[in-house]
Automatic annotation (TrEMBL):
Entry-linked Pfam families: HGTP_anticodon, tRNA-synt_His
One of the protein's GO biological processes: histidyl-tRNA aminoacylation
Primary subcellular site in the record, as a coarse category: cytoplasm
Protein EC: 6.1.1.21
UniProt xrefs under HAMAP family: His_tRNA_synth
SUPFAM superfamilies per UniProt: Class II aaRS ABD-related, Class II aaRS and biotin synthetases
Gene: hisS
Keywords of this entry: Aminoacyl-tRNA synthetase, ATP-binding, Cytoplasm, Ligase, Nucleotide-binding, Protein biosynthesis
Name of the protein in question: Histidine--tRNA ligase
NCBIfam families named among the record's database cross-references: hisS
Amino acid sequence: MNDDTKITQRASAKLPRGFGDRGPAEIAATEKMLAAIKESYELYGFEAVETPFIEFTDALGKFLPDLDRPNEGVFSFKDDDESWLSLRYDLTAPLARFVAENFDRLPKPYRSYRAGYVFRNEKPGPGRFRQFMQFDADTVGSASVAADAEMCMMAADTLERLGVKRGDYVIKVNNRKILDGVLEAIGLSGEANAARRLIVLRAIDKLDKFGPEGVKLLLGPGRKDESGDFTKGAGLDAGQQEFVVGLIDPQKAWEDHIASIDIRLADSEIGQEGRTELEQIAELISQAGYDDGRIRIDPSVVRGLEYYTGPVFEAELTFEIDGEDGKPIRFGSVGGGGRYDGLVGRFRGENIPATGFSIGVSRLYSALKAVRSPIVSAKPQQGPVVVLALDKGELPRYQKFVSALREAGIRAELYLGQSGMNAQLKYADKRGSICAVIQGSNERERDEVAIRDLALGAELAGSSKDRADYLELRAKAQFAVPESGLVAAVQEVLARH
């Protein structure tokens, strides 16, 4: 085969797994969601800041709890100066770098919010993406648990502003210090037990999904799921398993849970610190009137990232919908956060107290869409007015019409393809246009333009021709005006819709 007959192989037109495209409807709905979240965060006194997608890998740190891919988790590459750079995997680690770099000029406490995409180099799956959007708010420089309580209250307010009804969500609160006390009590302190501690925390996090008996299997020898896949356990003995499960029962009343901590973690200083902080948060929530089921203490909340040092919280949707197979689907967690007093200190050599909350915008969008929430029913804006190009020799004249519409603040475009009139009108329909401007030779001789109301035209096409209002509809669906009346006529049509 000579060079002239070689066939160039086509590139594959498909996305990598774990990524997705977005169309106009989803973009419009997401922008509406972001505006609502922004209003809620600003109501609490937070101000905007933005950090880049890429940071030095060392600045991000390695906090993703992914034992299966210990050297992965983030998308990384080398710069031309041999420095390792990474795509951010959340919005908190970059904020810690920003605060440390600008520490002296920022007010303390520093309250900020930011939104954007984050990236995880993880195995994708149902509902698990490698690129997704988050919207965070953080308070840096306050050690008070009032800052943590405020995050929980703001989370509740934000979900309601987004259209999630009271009773369809709960903000669950726990404290990592209590979990550290539990790990200490069962003998898993020290660096040598780091891997087993992570398995225990992962097991606790599965309480909602697998129940107490399933958690015991994950704490002990391991668990085989329905497909036959086996998850290795933490290797705890029966007594240790009972000790852990006895402290994470979310069905216990708050008072009973406190009593259980006092008994089981009586000798744990860090565990008692966690208990005291939870009591203080509960009192603040009660005084603010949020103890009506919107926010509750749940000892099974873990949160995956390893930089949390105190209170942790999770925003969970409690309603169910029917899936495509008829089985109920529960979306579960759509946001969370907690206290991370050591993260900023990585750059400054001293602990700087901080706490934050993050909404998973992409996941929450899917949930709100499933229940047809009004906030994600936002339609993309109408398509532009399309000026048809029926005579290629008259393009300057058509362009003058487009310019006149734009000068009046009307979105407009000149058809730039090669098709005939019918195809041009179909193009306008696909663009979501309400109105088209037509000038053929007959209209041009009279210095007129025809205005077609595409929405009325569609209604007319679907109507019975013996209806009394047929002629009136037809007259409105397309009519001629002098060229000088173009803008006013288009404005009239757009105002109808």
